Amino acid sequence: MPSSRDVVFVDGVRTPFGRSGPKGLYAETRADDLVVRVIRELMRRNPALPPERVDEVAIAATTQIGDQGLTIGRSAAVLAGLPKSVPGYAIDRMCAGAMTAVTTVAGGIAFGAYDVAIAGGVEHMGRHPMGEGVDPNPRFLSEKLVDPSALVMGMTAENLHDRYPAISKQRADAYAVLSQEKVAKAYADGKIQPDLVPTAIRTAEKGWGLAVEDEAPRPGTTLEGLAGLKTPFRPHGHVTAGNSSGINDGATGCLVAARDVAEELGLTAKMRLVSYAFAGVDPEVMGVGPIPSTERALRLAGLSISDIGLFEINEAFAVQVLAFLEHFGIADDDPRVNPYGGAIAFGHPLASSGVRLMTQLARQFAERPDVRYGITTMCVGMGMGGTVIWENLA
Amino acid sequence: MTNIDTWRALLSERSTDEVVTKALVRDVELPYGAGTMALITLDNGFDHTRPNTFGPHGLFALNGALSEIAARNDLVAVGVTGKPFIFAVGADLKGAASVASREEAHAIGALGHHVFRRLGELGIPSFAFVNGAAMGGGLEIALHCAYRTISSGVPAVALPECFLGLVPGWGGTQLLPRLVGPANAIKLIIENPLSQNRMIKGAQAYELGVADAMFEPADFLEESLRWAARVVKGEVTVERPARDGDDWDKAVADARFLVDMKLRGASPAPYRALDLVALARTASRDEGFAAEDDALADLLMGDELRAGLYAFDLVQRRAKRPAGAPDKALARKVTKVGVVGAGLMASQMALLFARRLEVPVVLTDLDQARLDKGVGYVHAEVDKLLAKGRVSADQANRLKALVTGSLTKDAFADADFVIEAVFEDMAVKKKVFAEVEAVVPAECVLATNTSSLSLTEMGSGLAHPERLVGFHFFNPVAVMPLLEIVRGASTDDATLATAFAVGKALKKSSVLVKDAPAFVVNRLLTRFMGEVIAAVDEGTPLEVAEHALDDLGLPMTPFALVQLVGPAVGLHVAETLHAAFPERFGVSEGMAKLVASGKPGVYAPDFSLDAEAVALFTGGDAPSTAEEVRRRVLEALAEEIRIMLDEGVVAAPQDIDLCMILGAGWPFHLGGVTPLLDRAGFARPRFLPPGVASVPA
């Protein structure tokens, strides 16, 4: 893709992800405080970056209400103590919010509008349940613009099983078990913790505490255990709480910079942005979105799928990952795919997840200097997919 | 029975209305694999407007939490922090005011020590994470910990005990000097409390050495826990200078000099605190804490502390809900203020109105040069505020634009509140208000800053006397917290409510007083000085009379006050009161001569006595002893206050005390004035029942 300057991923961090709800880690913690914590940690981990050199703070949230409203990129920048001269904005592409924050500031960097930007996302699905305050235009249904199932993500996942009849519930469950196992191993090997920001949490009842690891993973998950779970979206369906990502709270953020500026400042660039693409699909099968977006991103990069050595694909639903793998002829248990596991175990606080994928890919790149290219990709509500292709600079 | 059971038996039945601060314990995995910390959150379940305090039940709760922690062997550290914005602000004062026996008083001290010291004696490192306001016993909790971090956003760190009449006796006098050295400790324990109870901020506390590390509020706890983890792992070590080399004697002697200057022995607390600090140099923890227990018990059973608690309650509560003020809802909106006159007092008022109300303020005067000077004064003061960083450049522009001058009173045509600050002369004031009334809107409040003239007479020529109210500031206007709001015979409720609302917006404490000569503060100070000066006129050596009341610890001696106010003003008020009450208020010949001499007072610029000025008072042949002067003054005050209460000048003795504390700076340990008169036996019958501002009988 045309660009005046190379854009690099410098560093990424996130809060531990919590389970949403009154007993979750962040039950009484504000969403904007999670973002503040992420921004401050990025600045602390990268002391070579003078705060006034941050040219933009782009923060995504799906539900931009209350503590996720007030133009959260700007308000979190102020709360984080960045100089008031640093601007910020809020951005939304539902699940791909943080990914879009990265690609948008990257576009600005490539164009020369910025040198360094912070991009990230947050979703506190406990304080802001999916669909809070939405008001879908009645024309969607009256003119049959979308199928009635399009706005219920679990139903779109069931629809995807229809489109890929070879993907059985059993395959989806097996994939979910594998994801849990990989996350447990990644934790045991200390792959996840370095990029987590310990985050103070408080409840009126329990006082102050500290969130230090993800709350959602269920190590020891078995096929048998998953087999008995309900399929809430269809009688005798495929999609269960066990082979889907959960309802979660969390925030992510990363530093994106022009490669030459990163070098000038002494920031370590971990990945170079090669290309990115977003694509639309039928909203009722939004899970296939990553397929056309990846094809487009590969075409823009002049690469083929066989050039990709590592995949970080968001596991909104197991079936959506499996559809992607099936399309590209990749095995369900291919070790290049989500080596540290995925959202089925970590959780998926909607607009924040895109940067988690990138942060994990960067860490895998560091371990695998032999791998040149990797992708981060995810499906998006209302029928979209997003893909970013990265080059390993380790 | 163990000690704790004894205390529980003794203390847990009383103070049933204690708002209990809970000690919530939660395990925290420290970063860098440092291990598990038990983190205690102090939280009384209310928001920051009701800070954490410690009464017996709160202490028992903390003790329970510490017992649970002590019973575990899987912990590497213990931490204590507060609820949002508040760490803890010390002992439950309401509970302290109800202690009736020395045994109870002693138990409160001993229980506090027993619980707090466990923090430092658990065998694992303890950390206080001071996230918000930390005062008194709250700060002492932190001092008992091995390490402290503090947030740079903490608005208030203080040991206010000496201000109230106590000592920081839950470890403060022993631990702080050894931590930060005697000189720095004395700043917090003695100097700040005796300087209008000054508080310091987090950064200053860190600089003093009270905390070992400081972090920004945005992620204070997270960074504190990281720091604690590094301490636990041995990656960070905190140097603790031995304090034996510090010059303890000098620090204590310097402080004793300061305390003597301010109090002349009048309140025991700062002296006890100094003794305890001196003791901390060599005392063991047990000895030091035991000495603190004794000091607390003595002071808790002393009238000075009870008067201090009473006074504190007056300024904290009664001052915020003035007795007799009408319904707030009746107050009219004030969107523009007029000030008649452009002299110094008028200019000071204009600045205050502009800063606090943020509405246009117009000064009027007949003379352009005076007007320019008045407006110029305000602009210069705004520039000073700007230079000090108290206002931004934009705010300075705003304030300057708000204050203008006018040669005609037409500028008051859209004013809602016009106050006069012209010469203290009835005819002049009546003329001014007649002119003002001719131009202002129908509902405009007319306020007078008179210090002694009759409001009712002043309003007698007005078409609408019901909108005239007295609004008596004290000099300097920006600093002195008291506002006497005077209700005239005709003043209506809406006018009065507006006056109270304006007073509150000006951040003053308002007291409602009746239209009586010189209202409260000036009447009592004039009676007070009148007796002292009369004694001098009668032949008592000026120096004897001048120091006859030193043991009260008043903010200044009588002739120093004359000098501050100016002999001419003092004489004028005395003459006004003499006209009203000739049998009780005399007019001093010596004062008249002093005024005629043009001297600023009896003191030379270097504060030595000016022999020529002193000579103006000689000639009497009936000298009194200091004790006779003292008795005479206190009897006179008791008599005058009784008459004022009988006349209904204020609603209650509490209002007299509030006025003397806030308007004359009379000290907390006197409770203003009526607790002193009760205590010293001059009030017959008492002004306040026993126990209100004294140890319950």
Automatic annotation (TrEMBL), chain B:
Location of the 3-hydroxyacyl-CoA dehydrogenase C-terminal domain: 519-601
UniProt cross-references to Gene3D superfamilies, sorted A to Z: 1.10.1040.50, 2-enoyl-CoA Hydratase, Chain A, domain 1 (3.90.226.10), NAD(P)-binding Rossmann-like Domain (3.40.50.720)
Organism superkingdom: Bacteria
GO BP terms: fatty acid beta-oxidation
InterPro entries to which the protein is assigned, alphabetical: 3-OHacyl-CoA_DH_NAD-bd, 3HC_DH_C, 6-PGluconate_DH-like_C_sf, ClpP/crotonase-like_dom_sf, Enoyl-CoA_hydra/iso, FA_oxidation_alpha_subunit, NAD(P)-bd_dom_sf
Coiled-coil zones: none
Catalytic activity, as annotated: a (3S)-3-hydroxyacyl-CoA + NAD(+) = a 3-oxoacyl-CoA + NADH + H(+)
Isomerase listed as a keyword: yes
Pathway the protein acts in: Lipid metabolism; butanoate metabolism; Lipid metabolism; fatty acid beta-oxidation
Domain 3-hydroxyacyl-CoA dehydrogenase NAD binding: 336-515
GO molecular function, one term: enoyl-CoA hydratase activity
Keywords of this entry: Fatty acid metabolism, Isomerase, Lipid degradation, Lipid metabolism, Lyase, Multifunctional enzyme, NAD, Oxidoreductase
Family: Belongs to the 3-hydroxyacyl-CoA dehydrogenase family.
Name of the featured protein: Enoyl-CoA hydratase/isomerase family protein
Lineage summary: Bacteria, Bacillati, Actinomycetota, Actinomycetes, Streptosporangiales
